[in-house]
Design brief:
single chain, alpha/beta, 2,3-Dihydroxybiphenyl 1,2-Dioxygenase, domain 1, four-stranded mixed β-sheet, 24% helix
Length: 133
């Protein structure tokens, strides 16, 4: 098997699409008005799937985290420490919720955390060098 992408089950599709597209710069792959929306960021597939649609599909009820949701994070990398600070300010101005302001950690990473409109955590970080796989 090969990892194709990852996704979130969302309550309010329109709000979440606008956040990931307009605040974080994800590219919408499909129409905005569907219950299963694909977004792209740097070649990685990111899926937003309506919670109620998924429940109908699986014929089950699920419990979803509310508030700030600490069970996972989405990590975004930038090349420099200065970029961490710049991106943090930019996304906060566009409506992201601050969880942790930019901080340089003892292990050499500068990082910060924001939350999307449904409380999912997003890290913006750097080791002050270009990203390499």
């Amino acid at each position: 098997m090969k990892l194709d992408g990852f996704g979130l089950f969302v309550k309010d599709m329109g709000v979440m699409i606008r956040f990931y597209r307009d605040v974080l710069g994800f590219e919408i792959k499909e129409a905005e008005n569907t219950s299963n929306v694909y977004l792209l960021k740097d070649g990685t597939l990111f899926l937003l799937y309506g919670r109620s649609d998924f429940e109908k599909l699986t014929n089950r009820k699920f419990v979803y985290g509310e508030g700030f949701n600490g069970h996972s994070e989405i990590a975004l990398y930038v090349d420099t420490f200065e970029n961490v600070d710049e991106e943090y300010v930019k996304v906060i101005r566009k409506g992201a919720v601050s969880i942790m302001e930019p901080t340089t950690e003892p292990w050499g990473q500068r990082t910060c955390y924001i939350a999307d409109p449904e409380g999912n955590l997003i890290e913006i970080g750097s080791f002050n060098k270009p990203f390499r796989r």
